[in-house]
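look at this one:
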Amino acid sequence: MFSFGILNANSAFDPFFLLVLALVLDAAVGGMGPVFKLIPHPVVVIGRVIGWFDDRLNRANRSQVDRSARGALVVVIVVALAGAVGWGVQWLTFHHDFGWAVELFLLVALLAQRELYAAVRKVWAALHHGGIEDGRRAVAEIVGRDPAQLDEHGVSRAAIESLAENFSDGVIAPVFWYVLFGFPGLLVYKAVNTLDSMIGYKNERYHAFGFTAAKLDDVLNLIPARLAGLILVLAAFAAPKGNPARAFKTMWRDAAKHNSPNAGWPEAATAGALGLALAGPRKYPHHTVDAAWIGDGTAKATARDIERALYLYVVACLINVLIVAVIAVYRFGVGT
């Protein structure tokens, strides 16, 4: 399973050490936003490819069966392209003295630790310093629900839920697939996640065309979401007024209440750790989701709870880095 990363005489870096370095750099400097004002971000490139296929293959005059087949074909093509590019990047790492620099650059770009932290902290700062209107504007940048319908508690819950869910999608899942299959695994995951975010909707346009993308994204997040929940349970030991026992109990009991087969795990762990009730009924611009509450704490979350959630998130990210570092050291010892 790990043969891709065994220390290679022609490779300057073992991939696991490269991953640890990337996680540290991402935490320190983020996703290198200024660089991607000059060149397109890898996810933007993937999105343009998906958009090109969407425009040409997803036509309203075609049958649902036809659109479903075409959507499945798009998934196959995009996944194959991502896998091929990922393999090429990994080949450079193993066969050129400075090939690892390309992989490191892309790893930092594709991990989302600092970017997610900054986006949610922006909501906290807006609420804390500017009030509800500023909070609504800030949270609208990270969630799809109607911000006009949110009070302070709704804004706070939305920010915390986004932080928990994206800890799984943006941090744990990419690391998990990199650990298993190297850079090709990570890039394929990001491609599938982008497919789901662009065409994996259950509306009239995408219900058939995006069916395969949505289901594959569910499959690829199955294990990472549960790992993310467990890491958040561990992080609760260090969080202000965190409760790891309640975090685990809530995760085990309430994760299945979420509409998503995966998002409920990190959200329920966060709800239990912080003594909150998350999810629940939510209003979007064109529809309302009548979802169950997750957690038996208070639904009246505040900016202070966003701050506590951010602390929990930082500890969880540190645990994630520590796990990868321990694996890297172990592999190095075995390799020598």
About this structure: The beta strands are 278-279, 282-283, 288-289, 293-294. Confidence is low (pLDDT under 50) at residues 1-12. Residues 46 and 318 are 29 Å apart (CA to CA).
